[in-house]
Amino acid sequence: MLIGSGETSRIGGCVFEKLAARIDSPQPPRIAVLETPAGFEPNSEQVAGRIAGFLRQRLGNFHPVVEVVPARRRGTPFSPDDPALIDPILRADMIFLGPGSPTYAARQLRGSLAWNAVLARHRLGATVVLASAAMIAAGALSLPVYEIYKVGEPPHWLPGLDLFGAYGLSLVFMPHWNNRDGGAELDTSRCYMGRQRFGELNAMLPPDRTVVGVDESTMLVAEVSTGHCEVVGEGAVTVIRGGSESRHVAGQTFDLGLLGPFVKNAGRGDVPVDVWEAAVAATADTGQGDAGANPPEIPGEVLELAEARRAARGAKDWAGADALRERIAALGWRLLDGPDGARLDRISHRD
């Protein structure tokens, strides 16, 4: 699902409910929320936590297991390349990536263990939900929005994560397509680029690229198993390909072939074998994540650190809270924040 804006709105909640209802599993749906796009922000935990809290509440009838994955920055204890962090992705029925910086998200995730886990789960049937910065980063090329709109760099493109490349599609995603924040004085449509700058950007694209613009409060649900797309929400989806432009309003459907030479079965593709096998094993093991009869005993030191972190968060000492989380992780335990507080889960290390 590609979200032009409004992932926590009423409309967004309705679409999440429809997606959750389609998950074919005897267990409650498992949802992984990745912090990565906002990982450069000191409050990235809160950014992702708000999304997680919304999903827990809105999908309450489904009793979802929602886990925040703190894969924030390479070269840190919260790296997208840390095997200890990716277990929730490998087991997820739905994976959400959202606000932050498109260029940061692409730089941190490209070729990472976390992104390969996302690719594996998507190709094995999980739903991937992309909003805002993550939606832009997932294209074959990524628009450096802040660098152009805020910093003043000339219009240009950067390499993206190319989520749909394995399906034969070369796509560029632009949320906020009909944005009007600039009012009458400044054209902020086309993801804040405006028509003039977008014209320059569009002229730079190779002929095989397709631009997919999603209006605000609008979602595009692309079902790769059937090859169909559905527009949901208040606006429309604009497709620009081969010099022609088409507009598809909410309620309309179209074939993924409209976006390029679509291929249904991506298979493993370029996902590393070990990540693919781990994803296959995780989805086959229906006992994983269940509340077992013999839960592991939590060491006293871990409990004390968890209580200290709770106090630090209450005092808004985010740096102290992060440091305590790292100490807990070093002892082999992961903190999973929820509406009723944090719970501790033993980290599962994979060979």
Characterization of this structure:
With 351 residues, the chain is of the alpha/beta class. It folds into two domains: 2-284, Rossmann fold, CATH 3.40.50; 300-346. The chain has eleven helices and 16 strands. The chain has an eight-stranded mixed beta sheet. A four-stranded mixed beta sheet has the order 8-9-12-13. Strand 2, helix 2 (44-58) and strand 3 (65-69) form a beta-alpha-beta unit. Helix 5 packs across helix 9 and helix 10 runs antiparallel to helix 11. It starts with a strand and ends in a 5-residue tail after the last strand. Residues 286-295 have low confidence and may be disordered.
Descriptors for this entry?
Rossmann fold; alpha/beta; 16 strands; 2 domains; 8-stranded mixed beta sheet; 351 residues; single chain
